[in-house]
Amino acid sequence: MSRTGAFLALVLVLGAAARAQDRPSGEVRLLFTGDILLSRQVQRELERRKVSPWAAMAELFQHADWVGGNFEGAVGPASGCLPSANPCFAAPESSIELIRQAGFRALTIENNHAGDLGAAAREQTLAAFRESGILALDFDSSPQFLRFGNTTVGLVAIATVKGADGRAQRIPSIEVAQKLRLASALANLVVVSIHWGTELLDWPSAAQREQAAWLVAHGAGLILGHHPHVVQAPACIGGHPVFFSLGNHVFDQKYPETKAGLIADCRISGRRLRCSGIPTHTDPGTSMPELVQRPRGAVDSLASCAPELGAGLQIGGTTIKPEPWAPGQPSEGLVLDGWKNGELKWRSRRQRLVALEAAPLAGRDHDLLLFTLERHASPIDHEVGIRPYVYAVGAHGLIAQWRGSALAWPLLDAVVDRDGTLCALHRGDSFVALDPSQATTRVARYRWNGFGFTGGEGQPADKCERLFR
Known about the structure:
The protein is of the alpha/beta class. It folds into 2 domains: about 5-290, Purple Acid Phosphatase, chain A, domain 2, CATH 3.60.21.10; about 315-469, no CATH class. The protein has helices at about 5-20, 40-50, 60, 95-100, 120-130, 175-185, 205-215, 460-465; strands at about 30-35, 65-70, 75, 90, 105-110, 135, 145-150, 150-160, 190-195, 220-225, 230, 235, 240-245, 245, 250, 260-270, 270-280, 290, 315, 320, 335-340, 345, 355-360, 370-375, 385-395, 395-405, 410-415, 420-425, 440-450, 455.
C-alpha cells in the first residue's frame, strides 16, 4: 500500500471511531444516496456558484460510519462520448475531489452511463476514484468488503439497463448468483446496489419485484435501487429491506417528481439491520438537494423489517473473513483472514475467487472443507476459466487438498449440496474440442473420495438442477 493509501486508511478508521461516539454502543450507520450527476447543468452550476452540492448534508454525513451513492457517468472529456441516442455524462476530474470532501466512502459505477466514454474511460474512472481513497465499485470488481468491528459488509453492484457500451447484467444469471454466493459466504450483510426499472415510473414494476425476490433468495440482505430518477416506495421483500428507487440526489432534471430524493439510512445494532428513509428535496433552478423534515405521523414501510445478520464463515473453530477494502489495495482478488479466539492467526494469498462455501464433502461425521471456485489459466486447455479447489483449514492457513482440475467438462458453476454431493453446471463443449460459445449446458454430480472427485457422466443429476435456477 502507498503512503497516501495508508494515510487515507488511517483517516477513515479515526473518523469512524469519532462518529461512533455519537450513537449507541456498537451501532453502525450506513447511508446511501440516489443518482449523482456532476456534468451537464450540474457542472455549470458548480462552476458558477463554487459551492459543494452537499453543503446541506455535512452534519448528516459526519454522523455516519459510511456514505455511498450511485455515480452517473464517467470522468473524462465530452469529446470521448460514444455515439448514442441517450445523453452522455462526461464529468470533470474535479468531481472526484468534491465527492471526497463531502464524505463519500464508496460509489457504485455500474449503470447505463458508466460506459458513456467507452471501456477505457470506465476503467480510468474506477482507478481515479480509488486513487483518491474512494471505493468505486462495478460488477467485475464485486463483491468488495467493509469491516465495522466484528461486522463484515459485502457490496455488489449490478446494472440491468444497457448503456452506450452495451454492458448490462441479467437477473437471474449464473454470474450474479456467484457474486451473491461469494458475498453471503464471507459477509454478515450483503448490500446490493442495482440500476434497474423504468425512468420516471414512480412504482416498482413487476420485473423489479421478481428480481428483488430472486436477489434476496440468493443472499442479498439489503437492496438499494436507482435509475428511475423518481422515488419508488421501499418495501420488505422476503424479510429484507428493498429500496426500489432512491430517486435523484444531485441531478439537473426539471420535472417536479425528479426533484424529490431519498437517502437510505440503515443501522446495524444487536445483530440486526434496520432501515428508514431520509427524504430530500431540490428547489427549481438548482441541482443541490436539501434535507426534508419527515412529516409527523408518516408511516415507515420498513419499520417492522429487521432481518438478522448472517453468521459468517466458520470451519473447525476458525472464522474466515475477507480482507476489507482499503485505498491502494489491488482491485482484483481477495485475501482471506483466519481468526480464532479474537486473534488473526493467518492470511491467505490473494486469490481470484468466484465462489466459496464450507462444504460437508467428506460426510457429516468429518470436518467441513472449504470448496472454492477460482479463475485461473490452465496450461492444458490454454483457457482462463473457472477451476474448483478444495482446502482444509489448518492452524496456520489453508491446506490444498485438490487443485484446479475442471472435472469432466469445462465448468460454469458448482455448488455442494447438503449431503456433500458436488453439483456442477458444465458447458456443452469438451476439453477435446473447446468451444466457449457453445450455448448448451449439462449438469453432473460428483462425490469427494479424499483425493479428488468421482462421478460425472452417467450420474443422475435431477436433484442438482434446482441449484442453478
